Amino acid sequence: MQALVIVGHGSHLNPGSSDPAFSHADTIRATGAFDEVREAFWKEEPSFREVLRTLESEEVFVVPLFISEGYFTEQVIPRELRLSAWDPEDWDSDGTDADHVTVQAEDVDKTVHYCGPVGTHDSMSDVIVERAKTITDDPDVGEGFGLAVVGHGTERNENSAKAIHYHADRIRDTNRFEEVKAVFMDEDPEVDDVTDFFEAEDIVVVPLFVADGFHTQEDIPEDMGLTDDYRKGYDVPSEVDGHRIWYSGAVGTEPLVADVILERADDAGADLADAIERVRQRTENDGAASAGD
């Protein structure tokens, strides 16, 4: 038997923080690829510390629903799962290329394949583009458009910015968009000045965040000048400084993230049959239907 555990941060303040984890788990559960699928959180129940004890499977694939490598993926999650043999050096990563490490959770006698975070997987670049398609209702979006990939940014974790630059660089290399920039909330270049960084009249802004919350629903729209009060809402697109801003909200809510979670598990050796392809087809179709509503 094999199990999948999707681990997220959760929040006592933002009730929607855990929604993406539950949604993507439901999508994956429907494929039947795993005998068991569980969600676990740092700030909500079920907790990291207890989740392995709820499983009957002896082989477990743990996928962090986090954007970047850092304190939570390298210290908190392994500690709470009691992965005693875990060493961050085993990922052999420069901040964006963690893959997986197989260790024993000896207190529950399970083999755990601990995967790198969803946010640094190459397929997340596809999700960002999918988000741009969804918000513009244009499957061919790119020509004449700029794309801003937004991260939090923090001096406490240099890898936070690395993940944003990584995907911006990968998408830029496809030459799909006229311009692609990485911008941030708490470091330069700042999202407040997003229109200063683009010549394109149309700019798609995609926050590389797991869930919608204070930052994506309140801070970023106000910082960009879409509204002076998030409670009043804003238009999509909104006119700002001679540009049209197409603001998408958190990328982690895009249905295609379920595909990235599966790809992380697949990279770690999970027996998935055709589950990835079925999820990709389903989520792309769901996204196309949503865009047409």
Helix content: 25-40%
Order of helices and strands: EHEHEHEEHEHEEHEEHH
Question: What Rg, in angstroms, do the CA atoms define?
Answer: 19 Å
What is the straight-line distance between the termini? 40 Å
Poorly predicted spans: none
Largest sheet: 5 strands, mixed
Named CATH topology of the largest domain: Rossmann fold
Shape: globular
**Beta fraction of the residues?**
15-25%
Major beta sheet, strand line-up? 2-1-3-5-4
Q: What is the count of distinct domains?
A: 2
User: Which structural class matches the secondary elements?
Assistant: alpha/beta
Q: Count up the helices.
A: 8
- Write down the overall mean pLDDT: 91
By CATH reckoning, the class of the largest domain would read Alpha Beta
Give a nutshell description of this structure.
The protein has 8 helices and 10 strands. By secondary structure, it is of the alpha/beta class.
Question: What are the key terms here?
Answer:
Sirohydro_Cobaltochel/CbiX, Sirohydrochlorin cobaltochelatase, lyase, alpha/beta, 10 strands, 5-stranded mixed beta sheet, Rossmann fold, 293 residues, 20% strand, CbiX-like, metal-binding
Question: What would your notes on this structure say?
Answer:
The protein is an alpha/beta fold and 293 residues long. The protein has two domains: 158 residues, Rossmann fold (3-Layer(aba) Sandwich); 130 residues, 3-Layer(aba) Sandwich (Rossmann fold). It has eight helices and ten strands. β1, α1 and β2 form a beta-alpha-beta unit. This is Sirohydrochlorin cobaltochelatase. InterPro entries: CbiX-like, Sirohydro_Cobaltochel/CbiX.
